[in-house]
User: Fold these one by one.
Assistant:
Number 1:
Amino acid sequence: MTDTPSKRLSGASSALPTRRQALKTLAAGAGAAATMPLWSRYAGAQSAEPIRIGFGKHATGIGAAYGRWYERTSVAALAKINAEGGINGRQVELVTEDDGTDPKRAAEVLEKFASQSKCDIAFGTLFSHVVIGAAPRAAELKLPYFVVSEGHHVASGMLNRWTLQPGITDVKSQVTAMAPFLTNTLGKKVTMIYPDYGFGYDHRDNLTPAITAAGGEVVAQIAIPPTETSFTKYFPKIPRDTEVIYHVMVGPAVLTFVKEMGEFFGPSRPEIFGFIDSLEAVDLSSPGLEFLEGTYFWEGMPRYLQDDAPDYVKAYRDAVGIDANGASTSDGADVSTAAHMFGCWETLHIIKAGMEAADYKSTDDRQALIEAVEAMTDMPAGPDHPQGAKRFNGKTHQVFGPQYISKVTDGKLVVAETVDYEDTLYPDEVDYTTMSF
Amino acid sequence: MEFGPYLLLACLEGAVLAAVLALMASGLSLVFGVMRVVNVAHGEFYMLGAVMAWVVTSVLGGGAVINFVAALILAPLIVGALAVLADVTILKRLSYDPERTIVATIGLLYIIQQLALMGYGPEARPVAPPFNSRIALPWVEWGEGGIGLYFPWGLSTTSYKLFVIVAAVVLLAALRLFMTRSRAGLIMRATQADGEMATAFGIPVERVYALVFGAGAALAALAGVLIVPIQQAHYLMGGDALLLSFIVVIIGGLGSLAGTVVAAVLIGMSDGIISVFFTPTLAKIIATLLVALVLVFRPQGLFGVRER
């Protein structure tokens, strides 16, 4: 971009006689060239400059499988939004940076978005420790930060006014929605297995009271370090009278975990209920997973194309590029993170709706954008919200949506029960709207 | 679960870890012993072994047994060849200077890791074991009629895990025989004892170095192939394995094969048992404490020989 104009200018200056003059013109030319991209392309039409959305991608580190699909979903969503005319008539551009699934790096990435790459907003982070580590920086930078994390840290009041989670439900509502099914259908005595950090604690702290309220009992809580690679040694801690195993694991060793659980129990397993996080991006037909047949999973959105899927779900799946098994259409072994990545699609559509409601023009309107999103409530199911009808709570910055319980049938996940968002609500724990910007 | 069966289960799990660790750490120890190079990229060769096992399996597409045997042969060869290449193009240029090779192998670590991420991807991918049947283990019990056998709930292992333990023992025995009985082993030990003198006696020291570096990487790759049907191949799997290998090698004595094996069993078993009965964090604390104690009271390691 800087090449062409400087060449042209230096060519013009060669007509001038003195060397000093030539140098001066050259310097001016270089200066002009440096500012060129800013004014030449959009001369006279400031508002035609694209809206830039900074996307903190877990490209490396333990979240890498999620990061890849989060990016694919976001790119697909923006292609749709741009094809439909962009936001306020402006095209939208994704500025992707690797945050290494690392809180420190993620905070630096936010800074880069705000000061260096001139992004309007930041978006995309998933892993809870990364969100919790980076969100304070977003508030300092006064940068709207749309996370797709499903952690309870947004609605718990731990974060700030600049951080919102409008595209994916949080663990507390998910867990609350699962407890009645667990105790009514599977069994009363529940043993929990969860990762030993924030995300796992969200499950521990919310499931235990929910199970008690539903008339059951949590008989054991087994925390496993997220970096663990061998799991058999933990399973003897499962009490003998357990009727239901509740498992939720994350990270690269999830397949080992589920496999070794099958080997541990052999033919006499209790009922098993897992969060799909334990097998997100993992093929259910992987060797060693046969024993999962007949077990249940929570899914944020069904991985396998269901028979009764509406057209807008099919359109969403086609746009992202996943087949009927939830794997990439170009590589059947590349299984998606279907239960989470829809959150990127929906968040980007909410950003569009928010920017249009706030008549967003420049970074000066960031506060108006937050206020516009806070004012949102019901979001009907459709092309913008393929996961289902939702309600956003502007006070807690958290959305509530449907939850799916699927049963492994013939090696595929088939939705057995759907919990509507009304049954996942819980009392507010914070009112961000009373906080200052 | 009762104490007895629980302990047996912990020991079995510990033994699998010890077996893999012993193989991997012996590679690290061999490289340090002969070349005096601290190979920080050793964990990545382990990862490459696992990744190559997946590649071989998916390219070949035969039965699980054929695939696995092919991976067991091909993956260490490929990784070994890569390591030889790294030795010739990088380490040799640094004249095997101990400090500079550390920095160089750190660089190598990142290059291999990123290439794996770019080429293989961020997923953990499984490889089917050649055989894998669940074996329920019996336990003795004092019944009314004396000693009786029964099968406690959950006390089981798999045939493949037992195979890993046996395979590691056989491979380590073969390595020991190779080092002590073969001519190539003699040359390696001669180079280890005194590189300059070996050169004077016409031993092509640089070629020996290249082969030793390749062999060390191949051992790590072999450990990777053995573990991949239990765990999965993932581009970050080398980190923890490297740390444990260093712990083992420091406790056992850098360059001592016997020490490495003893330390691997010690660390593997204690990790298995302590993390079952207490917490995994305590197991790591104790292992690190052990390293500190060894470094203070016996810097050459349990089986190491003092520098001359």
Number 2:
Amino acid sequence: MAHINETPILHKGTAVNEDAAAGITGRDIRLSAANLFIAFIALLIGGFAGLLQGLVRSGFFELPSWISYYALLTAHGVMFILVLSSFFSIGYLYAGTSRVLGGLANKTIAFGWAGFALMTTGTLIAAFLIVTGNANVLYTFYTPMQAHPWFYIGLALIVVGILLNCIGMFITYQSWRKRNPGKLTPLFAFFANAVFVLWVFASLFIAVFVIAMVIPWAFGWVATIDPMMGRTLFWAFGHTLVNIWMLTSISAWYVAMPKIIGGKVFSDSLARVAVVILVVANVPGGFHHQILDPGLSVNVKFLHVIQTFMIIFPSLMTAFAMLATMERTGRAKGVTSLLGWWKTLPWSDARFFALIVAMFAYIPAGLGGIINASNQINQVVHNSIWVTGHLHLTVGTTVILTFFGISYWLIPYLSGRKMTPTINRLAVAQTVIWASGMLLMSGAMHINGLLGSPRRTANTSYNGHSAAADWAMYEMLMAMGGVILVVGIILLVYIWAQLAFFAPKGKTDFPIGEDYSPSDASPLFMDRWSIWVALATVSVAIAYIIPLIDFASGHNPGSPPFLMP
Amino acid sequence: MHIHRYEKLWLIIGSLILAVFLGILAFQTFFLEMGPPSHAEMIDPQTVRESEIFADTELKEIGDNEYEIAIIAEMFAFQPGDLEIPAGATVHFTLASPDVTHGFKITDTNVNVMVVPGHISKVSHTFDEPGEYLILCNEYCGLGHEFMANTITVK
């Protein structure tokens, strides 16, 4: 595309191996493409499950007796939250890392495929049990509800597969550092490594929970389980997952967006600081899902609120960096008026348009997150469909639209094709459709939540109660939003198929921005992950030691399993 | 590492707003006692139905227009059934589950608490406005979850 600035200015901060940047090797392409393929199938299945839910809840449609609303809900959650996000982040980050570090190490390829095999097998097992009605436990699978024991084996395989991918990423990252002493890793690789460090933190919590506690209990080898321990370990994983998506998304905002708009990275060092704060402060955020739980004192909960709020700081940094990048790019093009640079942005480029709409969605999404985490205010919204609306703004709009934007260069980059102006226009239309569908659906969910409507509940009038009657109109809007979103998914799959198999052959670049000025380069110690992992461990310890000791020493009599259905 | 003057300003203002916000939350929590329900007491889920607190589940007047009731949240009902209280009454709810995790939410109020098996939850509310309030379970608890509801009538 004409507006892309191709000036090859290099300096230490984001040194790129230009030989490798010409294109990545076939084996790296195959690994990334395989991961993306599963992610896209998950999007299709999860999307249609979501549409059916909207139609059922609003009373437009009644499900056949062989499948329940809650099976659809489980499928929607597992497909989007576990499968789509993990496979996509691996496919995208592996490809980008290969691009900036000059290829993946041999061992990384081996770990990558082994992880892929485990994750795919786990997904198939879990999906089969969900669809056959043997795992109506939702993606949070709160004990002592119990699914078919093999459902947990499926989840465990996914988690172990993710851990193998983490090892793969660390091998390539560290071998590059060994080969380039005294050099700072490229910013994209730094982001990718951070995401996989968070995957390790998240996976360890859920692995301990599923493998050491749930599986022995589900197979009947252990009689009881402590549900509070389970909630705590699950949300240490669940909320870390949220920041894994965010970090994956903002890697594109920080690194690719400047290149797409013809500018430069605003500040390499501040980007790395934001990443490090997210990694260090993130895990304890999980506790704000438990503000209304018994067994945690008011004081401990307030400590968790403060720790959760620390994540807001890097978001403020990101907001500043994004706008500053855009303004500087406009100024460099000669714009002098206060806001004139806004007009010089490449609005008709789908790669940019999807990203900036995602950024706009992040403003209300972030505000909603602050409300949810605000201790006593949480009572107003907890477990209402407001929270579902929040999730659809954060993951469903900010993260997913960023993923879509990424796919517009990632797929042709991997398939050796070029985006045509027609596909680009379709992709812009897709962004508009997606954003309007989400605005309608998520807006209706937010309002309905404030009116008291619960999340995760099949269609019911609560015996004709007047409170529930007020929700009906918004449930209809939710269903309409869902229909619009499915149109968006169908259009997207068409675009992806074009980009993967039919678009004209050619060279597409994986956009990697360069630093604005060498004085913004980070000090070398930023690359020493042992420091950040140690600090993150301290922050986890501050949040978790008191509650976990309380639960473990509280002599919880434990709960036997309750099979669903 | 160079930080732009505007960015410093933006981050300082942002952090100050956050600090003030946290200060207000802390004031409400610790001085106005508006903190979230956080009762800490254990109970064996398998003995909830026979236990001293929950076996005798009816509304008890314990003071001037002040009531107390123990409620069992189970698949898929709250026991005992619908409640009736005079306007202006303060009710102290004590809750436990004999089976899976449930939620206890009264619409048009801020009463909202998790009922996790193994723990006793407590929450109180003063019902000033007359009307029929809907009590519902807001945590998925199984295939009959959407039927788990009661009413509390304030006269």
Number 3:
Amino acid sequence: MDFAFSEEQEMLRRSARDFLAKECSPKVVRKLMDESDAYDPALWSKIAGLGWTALGIPEEYGGVGSFLDLIVVLEEAGRALLPGPYFATMGLGVPALIEAGTEAQKKSALGAIASGDARATLAFTEPSARWDASGVALTAKPGGGGWQLDGVKLFVPDAQNADYMVVAARTRGEGEDGISLFLVEGKPKGMSVHQLQTLDMTRRWSEVRFDGVELNADSLMGAPHKAWPALRRALEWATAALCAEMIGGAQKVLETSTDYAKTRHQFGKPIGIYQAVSHKLADMLVLSESGRSATYYAAWAVDADAPDRSLASSMAKAYVSDAYRKVAGDGIQVHGGIGFTWEHDMHLYFKRAKASEVTLGDATYHRELVAQALDL
Amino acid sequence: MDFELSEPEKKFRDEVRAWLKANKPRENGSAEEGQKVFIESRRAWQKKLYEAGYVGITWPKEYGGRGAGFMEQLIFNDEMIVAQAPEPINVIGLGMGGPVVITHGTDQQKKRYLAPLLSAEEIWCQGFSEPNAGSDLSGVQTRAEDKGDHYLVNGQKVWTTLAHVAKWCMLVARERKEANPRDGLTYLLVDMESPGVEVRPLVQITGDAEFNEIFFKDVKVPKSQILGEAGNGWAVAMTTLLHERGTLGMALATRAQITAAELADHARKLGRGSDPLVRQKIAMYTIEARALQLNGYRAVTAMKRNGIPGPEGSILKLMWSELNQRMAETAVDVAGPAGQVGDGGGWKYQFLRSRANTIEAGTSEVLRNILAERVLGLPRSR
């Protein structure tokens, strides 16, 4: 057993941190927040130039680097609050394509993503906001030699910039039976994307409507009706990836708050000398470190296809969802009034924490999955 | 990053598993079945483990250890969970006494003390806390007076686990007063059979007397029993505590997994497993116990590189103690009033005993100070 990243991965982390400090400073994050879609094509090209859009993609489809390398970069992306579709593409779109895509789909879509030419996302949740198979109600019916999609997907991350969208649809039955996946390229007729006003403006969610959208037969991913197991596996990859982003953010909050507690003086002393403050920071450390352990293990388990990959990813998401929210909230508290200002960056992390908490299932949802695994 | 076991590790695991299956005592001794029976059955169990080479797995071979790595220790711990096997008796000696002798002891001391500690022939206890020196160890008042070839020890220690059956006590005593109260302390290994040592049981809120007070009256301790340098006992004490919270931390991570599994069983048996609130709580504890264990694994990887446990060990002890209290509380709660009657399905004792978890081996407050100061680098509050 070796529970640490390799020397090469640590080097990747350092270079990612340096790059993001320069190219994705808080100033850049705020500028992108104000843009209509939180996306900067020039920044994306640079990211692709570093090879980050090829991480975790199999070599035969143009990929370079492992899923664990991607975890390292995502952690740094979360630390820098990198706006835009990096997580949606690499954390949602790519796993869905790898798990469910046909050879032709993988070749074209993964290849375009790896080279930096395309972005992707996963359209799964609907107005019910459920993360289990029962939440999929959007229908796909055979017709005209292909398929016709009708329904609404809601809270779709970075849909506005997705060149490829993996869409979960119901082709029959209920629950896990009858789930089919489709790869939608571009914006076919009848499909409309409406950006939502989101709490976390660094990452946009959209409502995506399908009104009689006609797709070719070859847009179906794998066999019809039977996509749930592949989709579930894709969600496990995605969950580990999201947790990595979240712990990167939590770590940054902890460091910023600790630094502040060392320099901010009240009653003639740095506030970090008072145990009411220092013990809060100690608790933030415990949450951040434990979340990190759970996340790294989940990433390994998913990547190694360990028997407990599903349990490990649920455990990580349950823990990290609560931990990041708590750490980010306490970060504001440690900073006092300045932490509550728009000018200070604490609220950006607080909002990202909240948005990530409900993405891919919140702590309550994943604890229930753990309870099921315990045969309770 | 890799969690797969290597071929030799797999072989070791299978060996341990088979051995535990064949040799595990049928009854898990519980603290309630009478102290004497409990102590003797646990002592016999440790001896058996020792003879099979499963005690002191990471300790050097020449002193009776197995000379293996942390991985083997982890594998062994995990197999103990799977087998639900009882712990060996000499927890203080194995977690602290041995490691501190290995770090600070002379060759002669290593030869003298380690093997009987491993075989449970000699049980160890820890004489640090005093009525006026709890979290602040530098306040110890027990005196060690230099008498040439020996020390004369006078004073009192308290909260001493296993003192009533121990052969050796790791004693921190004041040799002389210095401007810095951390200077002038001497770390002695005291023979508990020496004239002038008196052990009195201390009845706890559980009704048991698992801890003791020790009184030292003109106790002669030969200078060959100084550990480290005379007057430099603080450094030796700190090594002891580092091991207490680090190595012991891994054992606690193991214990947390067992408790979480027992709690799930308990809820299932009571038919409370379908209650959504109970499900949420038990899942939460199970996740925290697992995170605790994974923190330990990361600490072990770091330890493999640096040799000694870092202050991260304090995270394990802090998390475990608070988690253990919440688990015991939930166990009593899910049983309703019946949880407080009779032996409460075995949890009533744990419910009370766990209150000490956040006090013994470093209070949660002290541990948070350690994390704040040594890991985060915040200014010292004292």
